[in-house]
C-alpha cells in the first residue's frame, strides 16, 4: 500500500491519527515531520524536546508551545480545579481535544476537560498538534484543534529515570520525579507488554516568599491594598429609624480606644497564596498487544493516576456578611456601642451591655487565628481500552475498541469556617453563653485585635468541607479502511481512492455530591460559590466517512495532486432531547515539484455542550472588579433622585440612599456573579480554514507556513461581568443612565449596596448559544539539521539541530451575545478578556531551539518569546506602569552526557537570567489569572530553576 493510501486508511485509528503515525515513520521525529505530508497543518514535539527541560507534567511544557495558551496549571491558585489543562489558540480547554494514542481520555470535570496530569511522561514518544477543527475524524470538542499524545510502542528492557530540581538562588520549590518502565516481547515478537510506574512530588511556593508578591497592590493606584475583610474588624451598620448618618460606610474598630474609626485598613491577603501549587502524583500505565494472526491482533491499555493538588488562600473571615448582633453583646466596646446606637436610633436606656436589641451589622473580620485556608484536590483516574484490529479482504483493515474511564475527585477544604456558627456565636449577651447554646456554642469576640479570638472560639466557628465529583465515559468505536481498487481511480494517478468508514457511540455521565454545608450559599465562609448536587448525562451516536482521492501524479509541474474529504453525522441526546447535526471537511494538496507542497483544508467542526454547561444550578461565584461605578465620591445623595444621573441609577440598582457617597470599593477587588447551566443549549459550530505550504530547499531543512482562521458560531457563552456593568453604568452604552436589561440583572447587597456578602446575588451572567469567537493567524515551523562534516569541519564535532516554531496572530475576537461588546482581546489583558476563557492572547509567540550533538554529549538552549501586551482600553483607568507589559524573552539551557551506553545524565536551567515577572497589581485581570500582582501562569514567578536528572537502562 502506498504511503498516501496508508496515511489515509484507518488501521488502528481514525484517518488523521493513522496519517500522523505514517508520517513519523517515514520522515523521523522532527517537529515538522507530520506537517510536510499532511493536508491539515500538524506540528510535532518529540520526546527528546519534551525532556530537555525535564518537566514534571505535560502542562508545564505544553503551555509554552506557540499554538497553545496557558490554561489551568501550577501557576493557578485561586481558581484551580485540582487539575492541569491545556488550551489551543486560547479558545478554551473544552474546545481542545486531548487524545492518547488517538483515543479519548476520560474528562476529570463536568466541564468536559481532561486532566493532563494523567498522561504518563515516561512513555511519551511525541505530541502531535492538529490545527483547526478535526470533528470529522474525532468528533465533538475538536474545534480549536487536537493534541494527540503518542506513547512508545513495543518497549523492551528496563528504564529507571529520576529528576530533582530547585530554584538556583532560594533553593525552594523543590520537585522530584521517579519513573520505572519495564517491557518485554512475547512469543518471538508476536506481542509486547509494558508497565510503567511513576511518582512525582512538588513543593508549593507562597507569594510571601518573593518580594514582588509579599504585598497586594492596587492596579489603579499602585498602592498597597487588600481585602475589606480585615483585622481589627471592619463594620457597616445601616441607619435605623431616628438614626444619624455619621456611621455611613465602612468603619474599623480601634482596639485601644474601642471606637469605630476611618479609614479602614485593608488586609494584605497575598503572603499565604501560592505562586506555584503543590502536586503529589502516583501513576501506573500498562500496555499490551498480541498478534494472533494477520486478521486478529488484540491490544489493551490501562491508565491509572492518583494525584493530589494543593492550593492555599488567605485566612477565612466573615466576608461582608450581615449578622444580627445584640447591642448588648459583651464584647462590643462602650465607645463603639454608643456610635452604633446613634446610627440605629437606639435610646440610651437600651444602649447597655446585656440588652437584647438586635442590630444588623455587616462584619468584616479576618480570622487570622485559624490560619490559611487550604484546598486539597484528591484525584483518581482509571481508564482501560480493549481493542481488536487486523486485516480484512484485499487491502482493507479494521479496528474496533471499547474504552471505559472514570475520574473521581474529592476536594477537602480546611479552615474555612461556618457562616451559621458565626451568626450563632455573635448572638450572645454574656461572654460565657450564646443565646442559642446548641452545639456547644462559644460567644465570639470580633471586636478586638488579632489574637482576641480564643482557641475555643475558633474551634467552634471553624468548619471544613468535603466535595466530590465523578465523571464516567464509555466509548465504542469501529472503523474499516482500505481502497476502492485499481478500477476506480484517476487515470492520471498511480494510487486508488482510499476510504475509511467509522461508527462511534460515546456516553458521558457526570455529577457532584457535597456535604450539606457546601450546598448552602455562603455557609462555608470564603467560598466563591456553593456546589449543589447535580448530575447529568449525554449520549452521542456518530457515523463518518473519509476519502483521499489521488488525482494526478508525476506529471509536468504536478508531482502530486490529491483531494481529501469527509463527513460525520451526529445524534446528540440529553434529558430526552435529541439534536442531529453534521461535520464535514474538504481539502487537498498540490506538489508542483518534489521540494514544495501546497495544502489547504476547509472544515466544519462541532462541540456538544458539556454536563456543567447543561445542568449546573445557578449559584453565586466570584469575579474581579477594580472600581465599582457607585463607590465613594463617584455618586452623591444630592442627585440620588435625579433621573439621568449616575447617583440615581446606583440607587435604582440597589445602593441604599444611606450608603450613597460612602459605598466602599469591592473587597479584595472581587465581586459576586451569578452563573449557571442551561438545558436548552445546543451544539457549537465552527468553520475552520487552513492554507499553507511546506518547502524543503535543502536536505534536512523543512519550512512550513500555514494560515488558519477559526470562526465559532452558536458558541456556548456568557457575558463578562465587566460587559454587564458597563452596559448598565457607562454612558457609552447607556447614555441616558436609565434602568435597562443590563441593570436588571445586577444584584447588590440590599443592606449595604455592595457586590459582596451572602446577601448579594451579584452580576447575573446567563449562558446561551448566542456567542461568537473568531481567531486567525499564521504558524511558521522551521527545522534544520546540519552535520559539521557538511561544512568541511571534522566529523567529530557532530551536528546542530535548529528549530523555530512561531505563531503570528492577527485576530482574536469574542462576542457573548449579539448585543454585547464585540471584544478584541488580541494583545490585551483585562478582567473581561481574561474572564472569557481564562487566557491572554499574544500577537506573537515563538520558541527557537538549538542543540549541539557531539558524541556522548549534547548541549542546547531554548529561547522563548512572547510579544508585548496592553491593558484593554475603554474600561477602568489603571496605573500607567501597570497598563502595559513589554515583550518577554526567556532562555533555557540543557546539557546531557551519556556516561555509559546505558547511563545518561542531564542538567537543565529554566529562566537562565532569572527574569522577574511583570508587576500589574491584583485587580487588572480575572481572579484565576491575576494573582500575586502578576499573571503567574503566564510569566515565571518562581525564578531561575535548576534540574538534574539521571536515566539508567537495562
Structure, described:
The chain is mainly beta and 954 residues long. The chain is built from twelve helices and 44 strands. The strands form seven sheets. The chain has a 22-stranded antiparallel beta barrel. The radius of gyration is 30 Å and the shape is elongated. Residues 1-36 have low confidence and may be disordered.
Quickly describe the structure.
By secondary structure, the protein is mainly beta.
What value does the Rg take, in angstroms?
30 Å
Structural class: mainly beta
- What's the oligomerization state? single chain
| Residues in helix, % | under 10%
Mean pLDDT across every amino acid position = 91
The end-to-end span amounts to 36 Å
Number of helices: 12
What overall geometry do the principal axes of the alpha carbons give?
elongated
Biggest β-sheet strands, sense, barrel: 22 strands, antiparallel, barrel
How much of the polypeptide forms β-strand, as a percent range?
35-45%
Let me know the number of strands. 44
Detail the poorly predicted runs. 1-36
Keywords:
954 residues, mainly beta, 22-stranded antiparallel beta barrel, 5-stranded mixed beta sheet, 12 helices, 9% helix, 43% strand, elongated, disordered N terminus
Can you lay out the helices and strands and say which pair or pack?
Elements: H1 3-8, H2 15-27, E1 42-46, H3 47-51, H4 58-62, E2 68-69, E3 87-88, E4 96-100, E5 103-104, E6 124-131, H5 135-138, E7 145-151, E8 157-167, E9 175-186, E10 191-202, E11 205-206, E12 234-236, E13 251-253, E14 260-261, E15 274-276, E16 278-293, E17 296-313, E18 321-326, H6 334-344, E19 358-364, E20 373-391, E21 397-414, H7 419-426, H8 455-461, E22 465-483, E23 498-514, E24 534-555, E25 558-574, E26 577-593, E27 596-607, H9 611-615, E28 619-624, H10 646-652, E29 670-675, E30 684-698, E31 701-717, H11 721-729, E32 746-747, E33 762-764, E34 768-787, E35 799-815, E36 823-824, E37 828-829, H12 831-837, E38 844-854, E39 857-866, E40 869-871, E41 884-885, E42 888-900, E43 903-910, E44 945-953
Parallel strand pairs: 4-7, 29-33, 37-40
Antiparallel strand pairs: 1-6, 2-3, 4-5, 6-7, 8-9, 8-44, 9-10, 10-16, 11-15, 12-13, 12-19, 13-14, 16-17, 17-20, 18-19, 20-21, 21-22, 22-23, 23-24, 24-25, 25-26, 26-27, 27-30, 28-29, 30-31, 31-34, 32-33, 34-35, 35-36, 35-38, 38-39, 39-42, 40-41, 42-43, 43-44
Amino acid at each position: 500500500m502506498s504511503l498516501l493510501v496508508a496515511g489515509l486508511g484507518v488501521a488502528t485509528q481514525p484517518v488523521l491519527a493513522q496519517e500522523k503515525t505514517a508520517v513519523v515513520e517515514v520522515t523521523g521525529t522532527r517537529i515538522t515531520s507530520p506537517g510536510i505530508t499532511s493536508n491539515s497543518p500538524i506540528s510535532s514535539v518529540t520526546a527528546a524536546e519534551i525532556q530537555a527541560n525535564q518537566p514534571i507534567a505535560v502542562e508545564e511544557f505544553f503551555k509554552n508551545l506557540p499554538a497553545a495558551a496557558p490554561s489551568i496549571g501550577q501557576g493557578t491558585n485561586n481558581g484551580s480545579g485540582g487539575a492541569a489543562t491545556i488550551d489551543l489558540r486560547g479558545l478554551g480547554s473544552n474546545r481542545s481535544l486531548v487524545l492518547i494514542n488517538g483515543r479519548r481520555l476520560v474528562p476529570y470535570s463536568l466541564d468536559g476537560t481532561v486532566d493532563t496530569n494523567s498522561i504518563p511522561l515516561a512513555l511519551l514518544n511525541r505530541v502531535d498538534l492538529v490545527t483547526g477543527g478535526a470533528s470529522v475524524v474525532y468528533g465533538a470538542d475538536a474545534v480549536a484543534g487536537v493534541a494527540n499524545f503518542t506513547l512508545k510502542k513495543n518497549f523492551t528492557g528496563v528504564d529507571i529515570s529520576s529528576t530533582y530540581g530547585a530554584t538556583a538562588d532560594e533553593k525552594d520549590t523543590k520537585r522530584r520525579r521517579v519513573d520505572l518502565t519495564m517491557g518485554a516481547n512475547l512469543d518471538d515478537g508476536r506481542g509486547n507488554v509494558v508497565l510503567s510506574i511513576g511518582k512525582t512530588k512538588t513543593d508549593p511556593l507562597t507569594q510571601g516568599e518573593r518580594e514582588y508578591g509579599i504585598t497586594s497592590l492596587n492596579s489603579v493606584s499602585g498602592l498597597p491594598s487588600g481585602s475589606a475583610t480585615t483585622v481589627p474588624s471592619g463594620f457597616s451598620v445601616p441607619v435605623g429609624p431616628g438614626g444619624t448618618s455619621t456611621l455611613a460606610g465602612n468603619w474599623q474598630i480601634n482596639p485601644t480606644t474601642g471606637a469605630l474609626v476611618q479609614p479602614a485598613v485593608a488586609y494584605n491577603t497575598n503572603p499565604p497564596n501560592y505562586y506555584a501549587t503543590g502536586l503529589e502524583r502516583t501513576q501506573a500505565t500498562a500496555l499490551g498487544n498480541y498478534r494472533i494472526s494477520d486478521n486478529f491482533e488484540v491490544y489493551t491499555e490501562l491508565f491509572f493516576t492518583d494525584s493530589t493538588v494543593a492550593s492555599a488562600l488567605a485566612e477565612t473571615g466573615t466576608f461582608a456578611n450581615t449578622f444580627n448582633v445584640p447591642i448588648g453583646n459583651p464584647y462590643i466596646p462602650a465607645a463603639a456601642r454608643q456610635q452604633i446606637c446613634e446610627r440605629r436610633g437606639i435610646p440610651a436606656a437600651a444602649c447597655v451591655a446585656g440588652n437584647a436589641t438586635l442590630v444588623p451589622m455587616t462584619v468584616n473580620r479576618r480570622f487570622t487565628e485559624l490560619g490559611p485556608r487550604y484546598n486539597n484536590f484528591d484525584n483518581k483516574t482509571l481508564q482501560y481500552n480493549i481493542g481488536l484490529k487486523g486485516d480484512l479482504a484485499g487491502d482493507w483493515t479494521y479496528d474496533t475498541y471499547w474504552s471505559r474511564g472514570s475520574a473521581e475527585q474529592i476536594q477537602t477544604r480546611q479552615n474555612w469556617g461556618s457562616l451559621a456558627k458565626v451568626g450563632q456565636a455573635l448572638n450572645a449577651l454574656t461572654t460565657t453563653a450564646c443565646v442559642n447554646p446548641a452545639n456547644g456554642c462559644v460567644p465570639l469576640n470580633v471586636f478586638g485585635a488579632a489574637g482576641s479570638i480564643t482557641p475555643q472560639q475558633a474551634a467552634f466557628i471553624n468548619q471544613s468541607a468535603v466535595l466530590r465529583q465523578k465523571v464516567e465515559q464509555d466509548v465504542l468505536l469501529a472503523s474499516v479502511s482500505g481502497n476502492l481498487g485499481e478500477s476506480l481511480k484517476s487515470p492520471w494517478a498511480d494510487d486508488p481512492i482510499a476510504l475509511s468508514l467509522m461508527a462511534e457511540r460515546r456516553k458521558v455521565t457526570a455529577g457532584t455530591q457535597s456535604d450539606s454545608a457546601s450546598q448552602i450559599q455562603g455557609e462555608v465562609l470564603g467560598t466563591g460559590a456553593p456546589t449543589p448536587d447535580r448530575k447529568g448525562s449525554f449520549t452521542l451516536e456518530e457515523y463518518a466517512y473519509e476519502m483521499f482521492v489521488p488525482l494526478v501524479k508525476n506529471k509536468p509541474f504536478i508531482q502530486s495532486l490529491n483531494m481529501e474529504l469527509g463527513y460525520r453525522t451526529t445524534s446528540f441526546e440529553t434529558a430526552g432531547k435529541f439534536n442531529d447535526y453534521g461535520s464535514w471537511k474538504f481539502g487537498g494538496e498540490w506538489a508542483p515539484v518534489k521540494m514544495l507542497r501546497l495544502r489547504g483544508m476547509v472544515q466544519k467542526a462541532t462541540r456538544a455542550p458539556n454536563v456543567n454547561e447543561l445542568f449546573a444550578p445557578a449559584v453565586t461565584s466570584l469575579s474581579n472588579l477594580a472600581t465599582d461605578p457607585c463607590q465613594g465620591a463617584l455618586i452623591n445623595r444630592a442627585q440620588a433622585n435625579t433621573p439621568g444621573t449616575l447617583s440615581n441609577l446606583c440607587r435604582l440598582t440597589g445602593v441604599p440612599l444611606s450608603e450613597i457617597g460612602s459605598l466602599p470599593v469591592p473587597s479584595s477587588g472581587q465581586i459576586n456573579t451569578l452563573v449557571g447551566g442551561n438545558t436548552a443549549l445546543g451544539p457549537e459550530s465552527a468553520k475552520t480554514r487552513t492554507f499553507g505550504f511546506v518547502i524543503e530547499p535543502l536536505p534536512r531543512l523543512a519550512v512550513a507556513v500555514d494560515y488558519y482562521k477559526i470562526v465559532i458560531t452558536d458558541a456556548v457563552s456568557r457575558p463578562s461581568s465587566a460587559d454587564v456593568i458597563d452596559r448598565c453604568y457607562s454612558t457609552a452604552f447607556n447614555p441616558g443612565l436609565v434602568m435597562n436589561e443590563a441593570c436588571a440583572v445586577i444584584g447588590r447587597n440590599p443592606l449595604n449596596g455592595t457586590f459582596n456578602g451572602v446577601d448579594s446575588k451579584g452580576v447575573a451572567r446567563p449562558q446561551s448559544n448566542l456567542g461568537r469567537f473568531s481567531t486567525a493567524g499564521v504558524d511558521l515551523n522551521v527545522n534544520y539539521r546540519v552535520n559539521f562534516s557538511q561544512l568541511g569541519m571534522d566529523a567529530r564535532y557532530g551536528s546542530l539541530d535548529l528549530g523555530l516554531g512561531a505563531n503570528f496572530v492577527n485576530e482574536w475576537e469574542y462576542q457573548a451575545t449579539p448585543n454585547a461588546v464585540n471584544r478584541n482581546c488580541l494583545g490585551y489583558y483585562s478582567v473581561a478578556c481574561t474572564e472569557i476563557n481564562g487566557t491572554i492572547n499574544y500577537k506573537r509567540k515563538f520558541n527557537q531551539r538549538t542543540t549541539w550533538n557531539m558524541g556522548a554529549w549534547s548541549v542546547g538552549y531554548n529561547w522563548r518569546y512572547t510579544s508585548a501586551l496592553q491593558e484593554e482600553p475603554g474600561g477602568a483607568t489603571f496605573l500607567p506602569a501597570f497598563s502595559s507589559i513589554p515583550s518577554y524573552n526567556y532562555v533555557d539551557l540543557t546539557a546531557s552526557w551519556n556516561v555509559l551506553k546505558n547511563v545518561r545524565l542531564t542538567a537543565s536551567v529554566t529562566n537562565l537570567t532569572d527574569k522577574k515577572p511583570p508587576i500589574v497589581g491584583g485587580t487588572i485581570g480575572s481572579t484565576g489569572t491575576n494573582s500575586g500582582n502578576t499573571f503567574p501562569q503566564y510569566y515565571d514567578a518562581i525564578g531561575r530553576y535548576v534540574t538534574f536528572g539521571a536515566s539508567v537502562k537495562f
